[in-house]
């Protein structure tokens, strides 16, 4: 989410511009009828604003809303300017053949989607109703609702944090950092979280978003030095545990996250 917010800020620089032409390859346009559908929809459109919900970025136009999803390694660029430097999972280099989609503007600038892993996507009029409240602005009451379970103990708290339909914007690194700071085992079922623990996690999540935003992205968390095979906790020196939770590789401290 922090990276996508930086892309939204960058995209603000093209508000007021008109699109001369658009382009997308078959990977970026996978969710559309065809790559040509993107080109046809964006041609001649006037960009009127930007928006973001969780990891979804969009441009408002005088026609369709233009959505952008970035996967793990997608980056937004305006000409040579990147929204964020040093993306943790990124290639840390630029190649013209990794440009998957973009807009060429009448003022000569290009807004492009650069993605070596081919997981990023462009969308037309993306549905926002399937997304939960944004992690940047989520209230305590909204957070409590995002943790509710219909029956049983529910999923692991890490898995629930990653579920964009409940809370939009928490990625793998951000989730691990918030749990690290909250001293909470990521395997804990959400149904076992009492009010005090929920409060601690909510405060930790808010502080994590603010701090990592100032530092430059979700890859700047305190737990990151221990995020290696055989790593130790940078807080107390205990061994770091690693397991796949919610489909993502998760690291946590064996001592203070209980």
What can you see in these coordinates?
Helix content is 24%, strand content 22%. The chain is of the alpha+beta class and 258 residues long. The chain starts with a helix and ends in a 5-residue tail after the last strand. Helix 5 crosses helix 6. The model has no long low-confidence stretch (mean pLDDT 93). It is built from six helices and eleven strands.
Instruction: Tell me the distance between the termini.
Output: 26 Å
Highest CATH level, the class of the largest domain: Alpha Beta
Mean pLDDT: 93
Q: Do you know the CATH architecture of the largest domain?
A: Alpha-Beta Barrel
Q: Can you give the helix content as a percent range? A: 10-25%
Say what the CATH topology of the largest domain is. N-terminal domain of MutM-like DNA repair proteins
Number of helices: 6
Number of domains: 2
* Name of the CATH homologous superfamily of the largest domain: MutM-like, N-terminal
Beta strands, count: 11
The Cα radius of gyration reads: 19 Å
Strand adjacency order, main sheet: 1-7-8-5-6
């Amino acid at each position: 989410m922090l990276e996508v917010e930086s892309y939204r800020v960058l995209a603000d620089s093209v508000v007021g511009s008109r699109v001369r032409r658009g382009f997308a390859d078959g990977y970026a346009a996978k969710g559309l009828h065809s790559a040509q559908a993107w080109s046809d929809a964006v041609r001649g459109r006037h960009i009127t604003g930007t928006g973001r919900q969780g990891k979804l970025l969009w441009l408002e136009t005088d026609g369709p809303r233009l959505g952008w999803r970035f996967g793990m390694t997608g980056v937004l660029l305006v000409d040579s300017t990147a929204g964020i430097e040093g993306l943790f999972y990124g290639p840390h280099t630029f190649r013209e053949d990794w440009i998957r989609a973009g807009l060429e503007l009448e003022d000569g600038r290009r807004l492009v989607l650069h993605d070596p892993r081919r997981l990023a996507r462009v969308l037309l009029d993306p549905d926002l109703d399937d997304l939960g409240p944004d992690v940047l602005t989520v209230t305590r009451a909204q957070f409590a609702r995002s943790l509710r379970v219909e029956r049983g103990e529910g999923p692991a708290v890490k898995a629930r944090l990653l579920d964009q339909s409940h809370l939009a914007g928490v990625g793998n690194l951000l989730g691990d950092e918030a749990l690290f700071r909250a001293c909470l085992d990521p395997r804990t079922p959400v149904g076992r979280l009492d009010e005090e623990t929920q409060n601690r996690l909510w405060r930790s999540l808010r502080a994590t978003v603010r701090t990592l935003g100032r530092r430059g992205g979700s890859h700047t968390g305190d737990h990151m030095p221990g995020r290696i095979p055989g790593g130790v906790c940078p807080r107390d020196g205990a061994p770091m545990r690693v397991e796949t939770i919610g489909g993502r590789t998760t690291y946590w401290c064996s001592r203070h996250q209980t």
